[in-house]
Design a protein that fits this description.
- The chain has about 350 residues and is mostly beta strands.
- Helix content is about 15%, strand content about 45%.
- It has four helices and 25 strands.
- One of its GO terms (biological process) is regulation of macromolecule metabolic process.
- Its main location: membrane.
């Protein structure tokens, strides 16, 4: 498809050809209004700014790309395909042996935008606000409007028709850092933009402070940060009194890194070697920061500990009762081998009293 580009941009053209046998694909170029002066393009031409990637299978597919466009790159680009056995015979008319598809590329001078230099946010000396500014000084046609973008997403309520545009960040923090762009739109030309980098030291704001697992299970520790540019992540483990890089000789440690996020996965936890303090470290050109997570690994018998504790208390109580009974005072116990002593009953005494009364009566 025909396109309009700006100097310094990149474009790609695709050509998909079907035929049996599979056709050969070539790329050709002619300057604008010079359709009779086509020249073949080769991979690496124009000081290696031209790339041609072609693949052949059931059909043929080819991609032409040109980087760092200049005004001289404007012209007509042609994809040619042929499976005629005589297609490369110079005595043959190319018009009858090759089929063609064309696209016109127009390259315009990129508008000039004066923009603020990069800004570095420092936590040691916080500022009340920072202001990003852009000024469109030169353009091929009048612009329509402008707006601001952060990390590829448009910032709301920033559209204006002024050539001079600004964006203010109040009380900037690490999560305000990123890649900002002021974008100018045109009616008959591609958008023009300028990039302003706002950099800050990484700040880790999400991680597990501790993790409790049973031996044999898997553990996942993670850290995520804010700050631009994205940091380089490393994981370390407390070894004695200092941190050491994780030894993965057992093949149980796996580290995943995605921009401002990292994970440490440990498989089949070992109760003897894996419990420790683990540290994630985020480092960028602006600075570095680190956070720690304590990993505790419990025995598989841990769920039985409450039951075993109750059982132990019962056993101890029974032992105490038995010992106490065996150590009681012997005087409090009637022994079976002592001779029985006849007890004087009230009936015997009554007989004696009766005899006495009888003698007195006589």
């Amino acid at each position: 498809m025909s396109e309009t580009k700006l100097t310094g941009d990149t474009f790609e053209l695709y050509c998909d050809v079907v035929g049996n046998p599979t056709p050969e694909i070539q790329w050709w170029y002619a300057e604008i209004n010079r359709a009779d002066s086509f020249k073949q393009l080769w991979d690496g031409a124009r000081k290696r700014r031209v790339s041609i990637n072609t693949a052949y299978g059931a059909n043929g597919v080819s991609v032409l790309g040109i980087t760092r466009l200049t005004l001289e790159d404007s012209g007509t680009y042609e994809c040619r395909a042929s499976n005629d056995p005589k297609r490369n015979d110079l005595r043959q008319n190319p018009a009858t042996t090759w089929i063609r598809a064309q696209a016109t590329i127009s390259v315009l001078q990129k508008p000039k935008i004066n923009a603020t230099d990069q800004i570095v946010l420092t936590g040691e000396s916080p500022v009340k606000s920072v202001t990003l500014q852009c000024n469109l000084t030169t353009a091929h046609t009048p612009h329509r409007e402008s707006f601001w973008v952060k990390n590829g997403l448009e910032i709301t309520n920033t559209r204006t028709e002024l050539k001079h545009t600004s964006h203010r960040i109040v009380k900037p923090r690490a999560d305000d850092s990123g890649e900002y762009m002021c974008v100018y739109t045109f009616d008959m030309a591609p958008n023009a933009n300028a990039t302003i980098e706002v950099k800050a030291k990484p700040a880790i704001h999400g991680h597990k402070r501790s993790e409790n697992k049973n031996e044999g299970e898997n553990a996942m520790l993670y850290c995520k940060s804010v700050g631009y540019p994205h940091p380089t992540w490393t994981w370390r483990k407390m070894d004695g009194t200092s941190y050491a890089d994780i030894d993965n000789s057992t093949g149980r440690f796996f580290i995943t890194i995605r921009d401002n996020y990292t994970e440490l996965n440990i498989l089949k936890l070992d109760i003897l070697t894996d419990p420790a303090v683990y540290q994630c470290n985020a480092t960028s050109v602006i600075g570095n920061t680190a956070e720690t997570t304590i990993l505790r690994v419990r025995s598989n018998l841990a769920p039985l500990w409450p039951f075993l504790g109750v059982l132990a208390e019962i056993i101890i109580l029974v032992v105490i009762i038995v010992v106490y009974e065996r150590r009681k005072n012997p005087d409090d116990i009637i022994e079976d081998d002592e001779p029985a002593v006849p007890m004087k009953t009230n009936s015997t005494n009554n007989h004696k009293d009766k005899n006495i009364r009888q003698r007195n009566a006589k």
